[in-house]
Every structure is written in structure tokens, then in C-alpha cells.
Amino acid sequence: MPLPRIVITPGEPAGIGPDICLQICLKPWPCELIFVADPNLLARRATELNLSIDIQQADLRQASSAHKPGTMNVFPIKLAKQEISGLLDVSNAAYIVETLKAAAQLCLDNQCQALVTGPVQKSVINDAHIPFSGHTEFLADYCGSYPVMMLATKTLRVALATTHLPLSNVSAAITPTLLEKTITILNHDLQRQFAIANPRIAVCGLNPHAGENGHLGNEEINTIIPSLEKLRLNNICLTGPLPADTAFTQPVLEKHDVVLAMYHDQGLPTLKFSGFGDAVNITLGLPIIRTSVDHGTALDLAATGKASASSLASALDTAIQLAQRSTLEQTT
Ligand SMILES: NC(=O)c1ccc[n+]([C@@H]2O[C@H](COP(=O)([O-])OP(=O)(O)OC[C@H]3O[C@@H](n4cnc5c(N)ncnc54)[C@H](O)[C@@H]3O)[C@@H](O)[C@H]2O)c1
Ligand SMILES: N[C@H](C(=O)O)[C@H](O)COP(=O)(O)O
Question: Which residues are listed for a divalent metal cation binding in this entry (predicted)?
């Protein structure tokens, strides 16, 4: 099987993305790594961190070869303005978006087999008047598909019905169409990408105690229960709606492959409590493989040498596994 070629975007240039990308280049990997970034930024950060890395221009015409520790292959895109570690600069927002588009395109063109993203600061991109709610939504728009965000540790998977949405908009967003699309993609991609034959999906309610039979909210009775009943007719294995406060207890988790939360902060605090620093963010529903770190830009740690690259390493491990499974599927 050819070695996968994985494209990585370091994300916000003032954050820890460049630091953790440099760190993972020190290790061997069973894939080729291509970084879409400004090579001068990476060279400056390597100097600040006192890391010796040979930064070269990527050559995508050659067959892929295993990553050599201490090297970094870069698909170059120039920053608009030299970064200052730890300090956001709106002038570089368009650069961040350009790196994402170029990296996604390399995957769509089949030149790379998976995309791994470093952290971006959503606010600075919006401050530059570029609407951006997250990589998940951006990549779905770019690829013309519907995304499902799922984060995973070694022991827990949590998917989200709604992603980067103000809390006041969540109830209206939970519609039968949204639940049917989300659950169908979740079921399909857990089968296809994760080789789980019949995924067992625990679905949270929206309200306290899943609405307490309509006494604490009606979204369960009006929308969630009928949607789950309809989806069960397609042989999707669904439990719920479960009260979210006990959906993450051991007896429930051991009977399920994934928990579907209705909104970002219903699902992710538990996931990050269980494994912040080693978890992986995976976008389902895309025509490309995309994984990401579980943390943000940590501006306070940029260029200090204190940023941990463990989540990026987990995201890369997952991307390699998913790319290998996909290649195997295509060749058999
Ligand atoms: N994948 C992504 O692009 C992604 C993910 C989460 C948050 N964000 C964005 O990042 C920005 C900052 O978010 P935040 O402050 O809520 O979260 P954060 O993850 O940047 O920081 C939370 C805390 O964790 C620490 N931390 C984060 N990553 C670390 C690492 N690798 N090693 C050691 N310590 C680490 C930080 O120093 C901070 O104390 C926001 O704009 C947010 O939207 C982006
Ligand atoms: N919701 C993610 C988290 O909390 O880790 C994070 O904001 C990144 O999302 P994107 O991958 O869509 O940028």
C-alpha cells in the first residue's frame, strides 16, 4: 500500500500551531507530511524554540515517502505581515483561510490523503470581515457537503447535532431534517471510516431530564422522539433521547459507540474532561478525511516551548489510520 501523504495546516500564526507542527517533525511517521504555511514563519518559530529543523519546499510530483525526523516539507503561502508570537493580527486572517483552502484542495485533488488542522482563532478571522464559525463549517462549505463534528478520546466518542451556534439559536436549529441528516451521516461514517458494523448511538435530549415528559420543554416530544422513531425504521441503532446529565455515565457508555449531544457545550466539556490534550476532532460527512487538535490557539504559550503536541500527534495518528483504511477500501 502506498504511504499516505498528509497535509497539515498550522493555523493561527501567532498561536501554538507552528510550535506543535515543528515538534511533531522531530519524530518519524509512517506517512509523508506536507505543511501549508509560510516557511519563514516556521523558520522563525524554530529559532525561537531552539529546534533544528531542515525546512524544504514540498515536491508533490514524487511518490510519497516516510517522514524523516528533523525535516519539514512546506507548501508555501506567504503571510501578509510578519507575525508576533502571542499577538493576533487581523492582517493575517486571509492567509489562514488561504492555507485551509489550499490544503483542502490538495485532498480534493487526491494529491494528499488526509487533512490535519492546527488551531485557529475564529474571532480574528471574523474581525477581518471573513465569516468563519469553525473549520468544520468552512470545510463543509468549501467541499459542498454537510458536516458532523465528532471528538474522540481512546474511550469516548461525542458527536454534535449543532456546532458553533449561539445557545439562543440551538432550539430552533434542532429540526427533524437536521437530526435525520446528522444521525444518518454519523451512522454511515462510523461504519465506513471506523469499521463499526452497527453503530450504537446514544442521543441526548435538549432539556433538563430530556424534557420530563413535556414539563421541562417540548423539543423532545415534538422533534427528537419522532425523528428517532423514523430513523429506527432504517435499522439505525438509537437509544434516547436520554437525559444528558446521566448519558455520560459508565453503564450508558459501555453499551454505546458514540453519544450525540444536541449542542457544543452539552457534549464537549465531558469529552475534554475525559481526555483534553489527547483527543481528536474528526469531521464526518466530508468527501475528504479531516482531523484536528482538541485545543485552541493558546496564545499565552506560543514560542515558549510549553505547548504540548500530544493532541496533534493523536490527530495525525487518526488521520493515518483513516487514510490507510480508505486506500484499502478503494483497492479491494
Ligand atoms: N481546532 C481549533 O481550531 C480550535 C479548537 C478549540 C478552540 N479554538 C479557538 O482557540 C481560541 C482560544 O480558545 P480557548 O482559550 O478557549 O482554548 P485553548 O485550548 O486555546 O486554551 C485553553 C487552555 O489550555 C491551554 N492549552 C491549550 N492547548 C494547549 C497545548 N497544546 N499544550 C498545553 N496547554 C494548552 C491554554 O494555555 C489555556 O490555558 C478561540 O478562538 C477558540 O475558538 C480553536
Ligand atoms: N469545537 C471545537 C473544540 O471545541 O475543540 C473547536 O472549536 C474547533 O472546531 P473546528 O474544528 O470546527 O474549527
Answer: 164, 209, 264
**What's the pLDDT at 328?**
87
Give the burial class of 184: count Cβ atoms within 10 A of its Cβ; 0-12 exposed, 13-18 middle, 19 or more buried. middle
Mutate to test the pocket of ligand 1, among 8, 293, 297 (most ligand atoms within 8 A of CB): 297
What pLDDT is attached to residue 332? 74
Q: Do 2 and 119 share a domain, yes or no?
A: yes
The residue nearest atom 5 of ligand 2, judged by CA position, is 294
Residue 2 pLDDT: 81
User: Per DSSP, which regions of 30-99 are E strands?
Assistant: 32-37, 54-57, 71-76
- Would you report the helix, strand and coil content of the chain in percent, each value rounded to 5? 40, 20, 40
List the chain residues with pLDDT less than 70.
none
Q: Which residues form the pocket of ligand 1, taking CB atoms under 6 Å from any ligand atom? A: 11, 16, 119-123, 135, 292-293, 295-298, 300-301, 307-308
Asked whether residue 111 falls in the same domain as residue 1, the answer is: yes
Domain extent, residue 117, equals: 1-145+286-331
